[in-house]
Amino acid sequence: MDWRALALVAGSLAAVAAFAWPFFAPALPSDAQRTVPYLAVALVPVIVAGLTLALDRQFASAKAVALLGVLGAIGAATRVLGDTVGGVEPVFVVLILAGRALGARFAFLLGIVVVTVSAVITGGIGPWLPYQLFACAWVGAGAGLLPRLRAGRWARRAEVVMLAAYGAIVSWLVGALLNLSFWPFALAGGTSISYAPGAASFAGLLENLKAFALYSLATSTLTWDTVRAITTVIGIAAIGRPVLAALRRAKL
Asked: Does the keyword Membrane feature in the UniProt annotation (predicted)?
């Protein structure tokens, strides 16, 4: 692993800490609401560093830049269209197939480009944006890090099945991750799914993990995230093989 990859991993770990703070910081919900914009701003330098590191020799050719631009535009368009129907987000299909065919670093950058462009188009710029940037960047990069399959008669079909299964899993995981960005102050205290201050203790950690799991299950996992998972699986199954072949030819 070269220093660029290590830097991207370090930046991602910083983002993980920003996502997971409710389980380790004993903040009151009112404090959490005031803190989130600062956490989001703190992630911006990490994103800029990731962009700088990603723009190395892999993107030195005009073909690579053009491919990033075309896929970024397609991904942004699918994300904007997906916002009109809850959970129907074909953008994951674009990110996963690009990550598999073009590599983790390319897909990480593509995820950031897609979310940034779509946010500018829709006016969806706010404290939640850095969280969405990293979530989509991880989806694409993760597809690029999946194990390679041995060449054979069934390898292409197995690859599509693997990517479809990955798409379903990350659809639920991303929903949970994004819930973390607002769950601490989404509800008044005292309910079984509310954030409880005092997460620094082990008992508080277990209480918050249980409350968050119930919150995610009730608000997004069984509805929005499941629709996203179904959409992603259908999309990858329908166009996965020809799109992967086309992207691999374009990479050459």
From this structure: yes
Q: Output the pTM of the full model.
A: 0.84
Give the list of residues 6+ apart from residue 104 with CB closer than 8 angstroms, or none: 140, 141, 142, 143, 144, 145
Q: Which long-range contacts (CB under 8 A, 24 or more apart) does 39-46 make?
A: 39/127, 40/126, 40/127, 40/128, 40/129, 40/130, 40/131, 42/18, 43/14, 43/15, 43/18, 43/130, 43/131, 43/133, 43/134, 44/130, 46/11, 46/14, 46/15
Q: Nearest to residue 23, comparing CAs of 195, 175, 190?
A: 195
Q: What is the pLDDT of residues 1-15, one digit of tens each?
A: 565 666 667 777 777
What's 27's DSSP letter? -
Report pLDDT for 3.
Answer: 59
Burial (0-12, 13-18, 19+ Cβ within 10 Å), 114:
buried
One-character DSSP codes across 76-120? HHHHHHHTTSTT--THHHHHHHHHHHH-HHHHHHHHHHHHHHHHH
**Residue 27 above 80 pLDDT?**
no
Give which of 113, 106, 1 is closest to 56, Cα–Cα.
Answer: 106
What CA–CA distance (Å, rounded) separates 81 from 91?
9
How far apart CA 92 and CA 98 sit, in angstroms, is: 10
Report for 83-92, 101-110, 139-148: range of highest mean pLDDT: 139-148
Q: What is the mean pLDDT of residues 48-74?
A: 68
Amino acid at 14: A
